[in-house]
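Researcher: We're teaching a course module on how sequence relates to structure. For the next exercise, students receive a sequence and then see the predicted structure as tokens, so they can try to spot secondary structure elements on their own. Here is the exercise chain.
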Amino acid sequence: MRIVDFNLLVALNVLLSEGSVAGAARRLRLSPSATSRALSRLRQATGDPLLVRAGRGLVATPKAIALQERVRRLVEDVESVLRPDELIDLAAVERTFTLRTSDGFIENLGARLLARMESEAPGVRLNFIHKPNKDSTPLREGLVDLETGVVEEALGPEVRAQALFRDRLVCVVRKGHAFDAGGLSRAAYRKSPHVVVSRSGLETGAVDLPFLPAGLKRHVRTIVSDFSAALALARDTDLIATVPERHTANLRHGMTSFSLPMPTTEFTVSMLWHPRMDADPAHRWLRSCVREVCAPS
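Model: And here is the predicted structure for the students to work with:
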């Protein structure tokens, strides 16, 4: 069995990040000559020059660019495994977290989450920002600490996920609507005017489509970007809104909700974070707060 020197992964991660032997040496607390020797060993191990001279600096080869993200994740995972748990004095923590989520989550669970956090860590601030897409770049770049949503294949492979609750779609209409008493047939659902939610603004990007029967056609009268807007329009018109049941409980107050007249797929809402935050004590506490708030009562 070939013995691998995992210290080389650390050196490679820093070298690719810095793009400079001198800069990497400072971060690794090694001499430039020792860092150069590490680069030589890495070149031999990978069969690639990795960093090549370009003027006064170094540039990464295509192989180095392809390896950079994988190497960074490996180093972060190893550091997380070897990092000991830390005790944290929550009352003394001064920190700001950013949670990227939907308007429905904030409307239904935001106040409870803030109260839960305030009771243990009054110095912690939680900022909510809108989630316009499934792009995991903000998590990867540290612009967002945590987010909620349905896990999809497009999500970055390094992102961690933990289920929070199950949800399902329901139809919602205003009080006094023709379907206020229920009894909506599949044909009536298809022919009636709908307001749908789509982050892209396109009918083909409607957020409920993955959970509806394949090939279902309906009369889409208008498209909005979030559930609160969809329900606001349905509240004052004859439009039908199809929204997640638990996610919009407070938003649907005073309206009539009923099951769709066709089979639909339930889905799981999860919280998502980058693995660099796995072992961070304050972030672990934040995740526990979110889990408790979202737990079935």
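Model: If you want an answer key for the exercise: The first strand starts at residue 51 and ends at 54. The CA atoms of residues 51 and 60 lie 5 Å apart.
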